[in-house]
Amino acid sequence: MSDADPTPALTAIGGLGLAAEQAALIRGALASGFLARCRTSVTAAELTAQTGLPHVPALCTALVAAGVLTAAGDDAYRVSDDYAGLFTAGADSFALRALQGVAVRERLVESHFSAAGSGSYWEVTDADRAALAASVTVDPATDFGRGAMAATIEAIPEVRDLVHGDARYLELGCGLSGALLSLLQLYPKLTAVAVDLAADLVARARAQSEALGVSDRVRFEVGDAAEFTDDEPFDLAFWSQFFYPARWRERTLANAYARLRPGGWLAAPALIVDGDQLAAPDAALNALMVSAWDVPVRTAAGLVAELEAAGFVDATARTGPVNTTVVARRP
Hints:
Shape: globular
Largest sheet: 7 strands, mixed
CATH architecture of the largest domain: 3-Layer(aba) Sandwich
Order of helices and strands: HEHHEEHHHHHEHEHEEHEHHEE
Helix content: 40-55%
Structural class: alpha/beta
Number of domains: 2
Number of strands: 10
Strand content: 15-25%
Distance between the termini: 65 Å
CATH superfamily of the largest domain: Vaccinia Virus protein VP39
Radius of gyration: 22 Å
């Protein structure tokens, strides 16, 4: 029997459990609109009347302990200074989508310790897949989302120069199309086609394009990105490569090459910059997630090599404020 002291491990596990519960607390506070009601000072009694919730005083106490709310006197509360920025430019929408994705990922990570595992991205429920898709893109209805995409594009000169003109843009694996719909609002000459296998995600993206007033400049297609065809070539293509298992990648890249005009650019996000990054907990968990879906864990250099093997040239990694994107040109 080991004589090792269990205290450090139990302390660490207690901290992990606390973080998970507090994430659920904030997720619920955001999703219900509870936290938004606290942007100005409000009493527990007023919150009870407004929300109809039965445990408002205890919820407020837990949110204060988590640093999310601060006491404002006379049984009143408001969002703390640390969290007040969530309600700037729609950052709360981004935060909620991220936390809802975490809830799904938490279940998937645990399932990897069973023989069956979690299956592929296409084997999760529609609701879980939608939450995962939302958590890896921006909300195009917010200034925060559009600003994040503007900053990302400005860090990639090959893409920046195209979207400022009347480029045709193709997105392979569009999901909810948060980035694409943001770009269409930012760059009024841009036109696009978006392709995804998930009909429910495409339907949501199409509906949001109408709500945002850009539906006349985008066409959505439900289908296999490796088989999509179009009568006209594209100037720019985006490939959501970390949703593409190994068996689909070569065909999809070949089709992306065929759909681009000579001189057109392909962009693809890198999951990790280099192997050393896997020492970081977030990168290691991201690698676990995609590995379980049979998606290769490509470093930026590995993704460059994959694009070059598909016939692209001038492949390079561009690091922006959100992630690292590899771009490559069809000769």
